[in-house]
Amino acid sequence: MKSEKITKYLAERIAANDFPSAVYLVAEEGLQVFSGAVGSAVVDPEHIPAATGTIYDMASLTKVLVTGLLTSILIESGELSLDDRVADLIPDFGSPDKQEITVVELLTHTSRLPAWLPLYLLASDPADVVFEIDRIPLDQKQNAVTYSDLNFIVLGKIVERVIGSSLDVAAKEIIFRPLGLSKTFFDPPASMKTRIAASENGNAYERQTCIDLGFLQPDATDMGGLRTRLIWGEVHDGNSYFMNGVSGHAGLFSTASETFEIAKQFLPVTSTLLSDESCKLFRTNFTKGMNEPRSLAFQLASMPESTAGTRMSPGSFGHLGFTGTSLWIDPVRDRVFILLTNRTHAHDLPFVNINSVRRQFHDLAISALDQN
Fold first, then answer.
1. Cα–Cα dist 364/24, whole Å
2. pLDDT tens digits for 181-227?
3. Which of 4, 169, 186, 351 has the most CB atoms around its CB within 10 Å?
4. Residue 250 vs residues 136, 138, 150, 219: alpha-carbon distances, Å
5. What is the CATH number of the domain that holds 152?
6. What is the structure's pLDDT at 2?
7. Domain for residue 162, yes or no?
8. Is the preceding omega at residue 45 within 30 degrees of 0, hence cis?
9. Cis before residue 268, ω within 30 degrees of 0?
10. What is the per-residue burial (b if ≥16 Cβ within 10 Å, else e) of 324-344?
């Protein structure tokens, strides 16, 4: 069932050129209550309207929906511990300043690893990404909590080593297949392209970031694999693309309804993959007294600038994706809020910061649930 207020609001933001399409899903007590699709999943080179079943590049939602969930499953089974040292788990990670980094520090972004590196410019082979991360000194001057893709790239490699298979295979066997998901995957098959929302026309944003940080000269012709073509049906993130579309920080594609099925695994009343005790860890603040409240893999709604909005329970937890995706979960009211957009498509730089849209979406969704 559509929410007229949510649909109207998202249509207004599409008209304002925030993003070309949006799919939303609002759920309560394990059931979908509102859902809808607005706008165009593809604008160029052809027009394809968005539908509730449109597949989106989930970007950093991969961190929670796959890597965070798999790590939690391994912790519950005793195959991994929050206090395990990363240097003891993977051989390429062990420089002197990183010997004491633990699994929980990767999960909560408290490792002091830099926020980002263009690994496709630093490594000649995807197999060397952890080695390249290990070579970069920790930044002791940065905030205690510094959100970093590198944490989850390393965490993805830990999961692969413990399970003994690639991340995409592990996710398929442990998460996707048991939950009956058919439109959730890494590295989409070419046959699915027209069902996927398109992304940026090339990696212009990442290229400019590389230039700004001194990794690339403005007149460089060798861009280390950065693309100039329309990114459609393949992962948008440059590091994940370099890693063949399978990584711990990005690379997942899914629909709103199948994202909801995974999201239910973080709530004790609906989870079939985790115990009640494990689910409590996603709402537990592991970074008290630091600059940002973080639970296992998630940001908490108590963060002053969070995108949860004004009406979500304080114990709520969520995550965002660069392509324009977001997931928030309210464990007090057993509610799930999913908003998928493709804000990088058919839009010149700079891309619109849609955090205010996310906040308003959540406020409208909660109002609609309360009135339902």
1. 12
2. 999 999 999 999 999 999 999 999 999 999 999 999 998 877 877 99
3. 186
4. 21, 22, 11, 28
5. 3.40.710.10
6. 94
7. yes
8. yes
9. no
10. bbbbbbbbebbbbbbbbbbbb
